[in-house]
Amino acid sequence: MAIEINGSASQATPRPGQCLRTFLREEGNFGVKKGCDGGDCGACTVHVDGTPVHSCIYPAVRAEGKAVTTIEGLSTADGLHPVQEQFLEAQGFQCGFCTAGMMMTAATFDDEQRANLPRNLKGNLCRCTGYRSIADAVCGHGGNNGADHQHDAGADVSGARSVSGAQPPAAVPTAVVPATPGQLGDNVPAPAGPAIVTGTARYTLDVPTEQLQGLLHLKLLRSPHPHARIVSIDKAPALAVPGVVAVFTHEDAPQQLFSTAQHENYTDDPDDTRVLDNVVRFIGQRVAAVVAESVGAAEAGARALAVQYELLEPVFTPQEAILPGAPTIHGEKDGEASRISRPHHNVVAEVHAELGSVADGFAAADFIHEHTYQTQRVQHVAMETHSAIAWLDEEGRLIIRSSTQVPFLVKRTLSRVFNLAPETIRVVAGRVGGGFGGKQEVLTEDLVALAALKLKRPVQLEFTRTEQFTATTTRHPFTIHLKAGASRDGSLTALQLNVLTNTGAYGNHAPGVMFHGCGESLAVYKCVNKKVDAHAVYTNTVPAGAFRGYGLSQMIFAIESAIDELAVGIGMDPLEFRLKNMVRPGDHMLSTTPEPEEDVHYGSYGLDQCVALVRDALDRGKERYRAAGLDDLGPDWVVGEGSALSMIDTVPPRGHFAHTRVSLEANGRFAVDVGTAEFGNGTTTVHAQLAATALATTASKVAVRQSDTDLLEHDTGAFGSAGTVVAGKATLGAALELATRIQTVAASLTGAALTDCRLVDGAVECGDRTVTLTEIVDAARLQGVRLATDGNWGGTPRSVAFNVHGFRVAVNTGTGELRILQSVQAADAGVVVNPRQCRGQIEGGIAQALGAVLYEEVKVDDAGRVTTDILRQYHIPSFADVPRSEVYFATTNDSTGPLGAKSMSESPFNPVAPALANAIRNATGIRFGELPIARDKIYLALRDRTLIPN
């Protein structure tokens, strides 16, 4: 019997053992996504005879004779399904990869199910949004833009009131911009919204097979050993598997060393990696690539390979790796040529600095806090796994379609590794299903390039969720021994940190994460005596890499925890202690150098406002609970509050470049070409709004094309929160120049003075005459005037952005249960280009950070093997886990950012862990210095009542 798909009978027959997800995608239903292939994430949800099922674990043969509905079939000829309309209205998505599955589940809900979303959405995971916008969408509350902050005690309707001590000087322009529809300050919906809710947005692998004739599939044999030399690989058994076309090993790969990490300056990272190496340094490292006609054949071929290894001694912790006589992981490399600090001692990079004298600072202290803090490995868990397709076009150019944050840097790396002329390579990113720093790497593109160049056929590689956990990258684990002193008057007298970071088997991002972590985390506090000794160290474990916050979240956890301990030790309110010691305009921002970074300035300053906003919100929350009679939870519960602050440079150091182009099209609408990628960071919307504001139009009349290396000269990429403040600056500059050019053409047509020509929506008003933009296009063509302008920006000067987070929590002293009663974050984002979108970024950062502080951990056993290798074993926050946070914005206008805006993608993550740890400390008297702070740890600590020594 045929399977009916969206009302039409399929003529295809499922293969033996085929799941419904792959069958539906082969039939062209690309809205059905792969997030786990284990029934854990819900991205593949479809309806079978009206019942939602996870199609990745539903045998396709069981659908024979049944009606299957995918997201493509949810709407009708009469229009969108109500749930699709609600997701559009509420903007209940960011990257959008999970959205189709989320809507397919929610479309079946009745009122009773909608009233219990924590239970009924438990099978659908989202990594981007924090779920608040999803809840608004499912319940049809999209029109309120999340302005009401819901709590058990009722809504906070006082968020618009003034906050004590936080009013900016009258001369400072306000960030609360009276928004012109479709321009700066308006809640413009994401341009991709209609495509996302209908399943027609095209992610990396959403390419019809007819466009990739002869497509081959690549799978990898990975190392079962943490450290070994490959003696031999017998390809014959693999080549004998039906469908296998080729096998590639280290003998077929380029000798060129490189780093998978991608930065504007590739010399920022050590050259310690080969495409395929004859030495494996962690369990899960690539050993050989098998290319076949199908995924199944490629997997069978990989299993058939016969490999002989010479086992080498491994080392698994950075503490052991730096001991004299420890096994060396990259000891054969030339440290200077590969840019490895001390390869014979497993040290990738290090920093040693002292400002003032910490000995004098401790001598002057009335209270000293000393403790070792530890942060764990955390996985990005972007819903779209790493994937790429490579092929050669008619001219023989290498084309790469990849799930990447950095298409231009991927192109440069492939050119360098394969010794290809840059103009012979094109890299394109479709819509990217989440990144969080994990896709600032080359992890798939080099392999498909190798195979496509050798075989002259299209080749595709898609990682499994297990490969994401075992063979990509994680957040760097930090061990931070901290000693800090304070005097009775509330002055911070000394900060001393000894930092050890575990970069795993390869040094991608190791120097940058270490240096950045030791930067703004210290620089936000005035203290004349600071000392840092930090080492990034190789181990035979899964590599670490770039992760949201880029080292700051780890360091801020330790420093902000210590700040609270110092305040308690001298009997001072922790927020007052912060207010006394945090930097203010005019203060040098110093961390590891005696002089501040020359291009980092206070483009605006809202940290004091953020502190006041959080304090006032917590006070109002406490009063609401008291008024509602909910402040007494019983004798087994203790309640506490905690806060933490963070600062981040708005642009990465040493250059971050963007080239954009803005043009007036023949139809009177505008086009913006940008290099930066869209993966839920909202840059597409921001660029449309910036251009619309400069061109006196609306974002709906601006089409954004992006993430294609053939469009523009160069773009460093979407990382370091640079999408708004770097690429946005370039877009604004190009748009302003185009506006002047349009007005100049209008002046020549009308004879009016240029100063009398004013650009309005769709036209130029020149005195009493109005010239339409289509007339301008015709006139410019006759005059030989090009109505396209280019913008460039190099990422300097840079400003600083601030975030402050506060929690009120309750802890059950008998069971260790933790309840978050209130969560609030205040952000200094400058002039907020799109408040709803920016709030969503903050909510998503809070949710991801809550996972990292409470339960997420990539666990590695004593043999170096990752044991948490599926989502069922690695708990990311589900709907029921995330509280509804209050989000407030400081009133500032940044002098360096486009139209006063600052970055706000990474930074919301950073203060959450210490704020929660501080709240638990305030409630229980126990300082938790190791993440995650899981319930069993709380229970055991409460049972033992073991306080850390001061």
Strand-helix topology:
Layout: E1 4-5, E2 8-9, H1 20-26, E3 45-48, E4 51-54, E5 67-69, H2 82-90, H3 99-106, H4 111-114, H5 117-120, H6 132-138, H7 193-198, E6 216-222, E7 228-234, H8 236-239, E8 244-248, E9 279-280, E10 286-292, H9 295-304, E11 306-311, H10 318-321, H11 335-338, E12 347-355, H12 358-363, E13 367-375, E14 387-392, E15 398-402, H13 407-418, E16 425-428, H14 445-455, E17 459-462, H15 465-471, E18 478-486, E19 492-504, H16 510-517, H17 520-523, E20 530-538, H18 552-570, H19 574-581, H20 607-627, E21 637-649, E22 658-664, E23 670-674, H21 683-694, E24 702-706, H22 722-725, H23 727-750, E25 757-760, E26 763-766, E27 769-772, H24 773-783, E28 788-793, E29 800-812, E30 818-828, H25 835-854, E31 886-889, H26 912-924, H27 935-944
Parallel strand pairs: 1-5, 6-17, 15-16, 19-20, 23-24, 30-31
Antiparallel strand pairs: 1-2, 3-4, 3-5, 6-10, 7-9, 7-11, 8-10, 12-20, 13-18, 14-15, 14-17, 18-19, 21-29, 22-23, 22-28, 25-26, 26-27, 29-30
Helix pairs in contact: 2-6, 13-14, 18-26, 21-23, 23-24, 25-26
